[in-house]
Design a protein that fits this description.
Elements (H helix, E strand, L loop, with lengths): L18 H15 L12 H7 L1 H16 L2 H19 L1 H11 L22
Helix pairs in contact: 2-3, 3-4, 4-5
C-alpha cells in the first residue's frame, strides 16, 4: 500500500504514492522530538538581499544605468564605489589580493544603443 498511487486519486500530485506524504509527516515529528537540537535558518533571496543592503541596491542601479546610457563616467563611478564597498566588507588585504580580478581595465558596452525616452513635462 505504501507505494500505491491511491494516495493521489485525483492526480493532483503526479500520481504520487503514500511514501512522500508519510516522510513529510515523519520529518516534522522528528523535529518536534529533537526540539533544542535543530534550528531553522532563513535563506535570503537575491532580491531581499538587495532590498536590505542599500549599497548593493545602489551599485546594481548604477551599473544598470551606466550600461543603459553607455556612460563611461558612470561606469567608472560604479567601479570606484564597488571597490570601496568591497574594501569595507572584506578588508584592504583581500582587496589588494583580488583587485586585478574584480576591477575592469576598460569599459566595453555591447549591443546597439537603446533609445532613451525622457518624460514629457506637462504644461501647468
Amino acid at each position: 500500500m505504501l507505494h500505491s498511487a491511491m494516495a493521489d486519486a485525483r492526480g493532483a500530485h503526479a500520481n504520487a504514492s503514500y511514501l512522500p506524504f508519510v516522510v513529510e509527516r515523519l520529518f516534522s515529528t522528528f523535529l518536534l522530538a529533537h526540539r533544542g537540537k535543530y534550528r531553522s535558518y532563513k535563506y535570503l533571496t537575491e532580491r531581499s538581499r538587495l532590498e536590505r543592503n542599500i549599497h548593493l541596491r545602489h551599485l546594481r542601479e548604477m551599473k544598470d544605468r551606466a550600461s543603459q546610457v553607455r556612460s563611461e563616467w558612470l561606469a567608472s563611478c560604479w567601479t570606484h564605489y564597488r571597490r570601496l564597498y568591497l574594501a569595507q566588507i572584506h578588508g584592504k588585504p583581500w582587496l589588494r589580493k583580488y583587485q586585478t580580478l574584480i576591477t575592469p581595465r576598460e569599459v566595453c558596452f555591447l549591443g546597439p544603443l537603446p533609445e532613451i525616452v525622457y518624460p514629457v513635462e506637462q504644461a501647468a
